[in-house]
Amino acid sequence: MPENGTERAACCGAVTVAFPLTFMVIGLVGNILALVLVVRCYRAKDNQQKRSFLLCIFSLALTDLLGQLLISPIVIAVYLANRSWDTIDPTHNLCIFFGFNMTVFGLCPLFIASVMAVERTLAIRTPHWYASHMNVRVTALVMLGVCLFICAFGLLPVIGLGEYTVQWPGTWCFVSTSNSQLTRNLVFTSIFALLGILSLVVTVVCNLVTVETMVSRCRNKATMSHSSKQWGRITAETLIQLLGISCILLICWAPLLIMMLKMIFTNTSLEHCKGFPLDTQNPDLQEICSVFLTAVRLASLNQLLDPWVYLLFRNFLLEKFCQLASAISKCSTNQWKERSIALAEESRQTEA
What positions does the domain G-protein coupled receptors family 1 profile occupy (predicted)? Predict the structure, then answer.
């Protein structure tokens, strides 16, 4: 068993328990700070018009926090066990629990981001309809429906549509690609990838529509009343946060989802990746396993980065950043002017 763990450590590179432990701490701190800040903003009187959006942010931060609490400790335990999953999970029940959490807390942020994008589009494109039909209660029901749907989907392998098994390099579990249930596994994997890509497409399309609407309204900025300008500032802040979260989702999840679809269409299995060490005689298979593991790790960063987008992309910090950029720009301009004047003086003195 120790030799097997050593081989797993070698195949993964110089990755120690410090990495998942550091990521877990950063993710927990960011999500807790985001939750506290959202609650404070939700209670503020001047944020009445964006309470539905704040509820979406709260749901996203809470989902990421729960994902960190339920997934990261298992990964850390596996690393401490020298990457030997059988040592801590002889009954395989923990693997099923881990795979379920990977599915649920993978799709939930994607769907919540889509709900946020649709909510902002409705608020900006159809403000009168939004004001009369949308409220916090409706948003909460939508969030609850999304969570129940994804939880039901994550339970499909438990009832036979797919199978959660240990994945290379032995530190995580997800749906198997073995030949014993190949059709069922492919169906589950296909639905997972299609749901993820669909949510990304909805998010991007809604954001583009929202940006186009905001740009057209900015042309009439001079005729806006004070309340309209305040609403514009609130909308701009939420839009920036929404775009930031959307970019994080695209960067973190697009490689994994696209690779999963590519594997499905090319009938590629990752079953060979379960060997330790990997088959050194086939560099193509080695590359597939390594790229897939990198894509999974990149997707796991989403839970860590989401809250910091909300924490950093706020009006207060954005205004400070703009002030700093303006000061630097003015300083550079003044230095350039002084340098130009000095060169002109030297040129005149030389001519004289």
Answer: 30-310
The pTM for the full model equals 0.80
pLDDT digits (tens, 9 = 90+) for 145-177: 999 999 999 999 988 888 898 887 778 888 876
In a domain, 193, yes or no: yes
Buried b (16+ CB within 10 A) or exposed e, 293-332: bebbbebbebbbbbbbbbbebeeeeeeeeeeeeeeeeeee
Assigned domain for 54 exists: yes
* DSSP reduced 3-state for 166: strand
Q: Which amino acid is it at 97? A: F
- Say which residues have a Cβ less than 8 Å from residue 116's Cβ, sequence separation at least 6: 53, 56, 57, 60, 203, 242, 245
pLDDT at 320: 54
pLDDT for 7: 46
Range of the domain at 93: 2-273+282-337
